[in-house]
Amino acid sequence: MLRIGVTGLMASGKTDVARRFEERGARLIEGDALGWEVLREDQVRERLGVLFGPSVLEPDGSVDRRALGRIVFGDASELNRLNALVQPRLERRVREALESARGEDVLVLDAALLVAWSLAPDLDGVVEVLAPAETRIARLSAFKGFSQAEARERVLGQRLPPVRGARRMWRIENAGTREELLKRADEVWGEIEKLRSGAHSG
Q1: What distances in angstroms separate CA 77 from CA 38, 60, 68, 114, one per listed residue?
Q2: What whole-number percentage of the chain has pLDDT above 70?
Q3: Contact call for residues 123 and 166 (beta carbons, < 8 A)
Q4: Please, what are the domains in the chain?
Q5: How far is CA 84 from the centre of its chain?
Q6: What's the pLDDT score for residue 51?
Q7: Which residue in 31, 49, 88, 109 has the fewest CB atoms around it within 10 Å?
């Protein structure tokens, strides 16, 4: 099985790329979906209420991610507290999903944090999707319903370390249209398919 990571900052377009790969036949692990699973854990929800107050919980006890985001993206220390609680659990789920996958498919991991978890050397390749901060702010505001101020706070509050140790690396610049992004994703997918074919023939 060929294992490919897709990473990028918020609103960079990484999930569009990962889902394009899925359309082309890849099996997809979505880090965000696993993150939702973590936030549904009783222990996590209770701890979030203690750390950040009742405003981050809905009446049914579920996590209000938008309210939580308003607290943590404007304060690095609060973001660190959230990450200390959530990220180890999320990383464990991601690693379990990667280790349990079997077959001859291409497996794609859509997870911004794969670089923070030093997963790149364990994968067959990493696709990094890049976009200027102002473009990402505009996308969050236009497509996610955030105010300009809230979108800016979220975008500027997110940091990722550089990709290190990747066996293969592709970079996709996404400052243009979605059609241009998908065209570039298809080009990268063609190279990934060649890798898979070479692995099978070898």
Answers
A1: 21, 28, 13, 21
A2: 98
A3: yes
A4: 2-201 (3.40.50.300)
A5: 17
A6: 96
A7: 88
| Residue 82: C-alpha distances to residues 90, 96, 178, 189 (Å) | 12, 22, 32, 35
| pTM attached to this predicted model | 0.92
> In sequence order, what E strands does 115-166 have?
125-130
Cα 99 to chain centroid, rounded: 18
As a whole number of angstroms, the distance between CA 85 and CA 83 comes to 5
- CA-nearest of 118, 39, 119 to 85 is 39
pLDDT digits (tens, 9 = 90+) for 34-86: 999 999 999 999 999 999 999 999 999 999 999 999 999 889 899 999 999 99
pLDDT of residue 79: 92
Is the distance from CB of 16 to CB of 127 less than 8 angstroms? no
Beta-sheet strand order (sheet of 169-173): 27-30, 106-110, 2-8, 125-130, 169-173
Tokens 């379990």 found at = 96
CB 29 within 8 A of CB 23: no
Do the Cβ atoms of 26 and 41 come closer than 8 Å? no
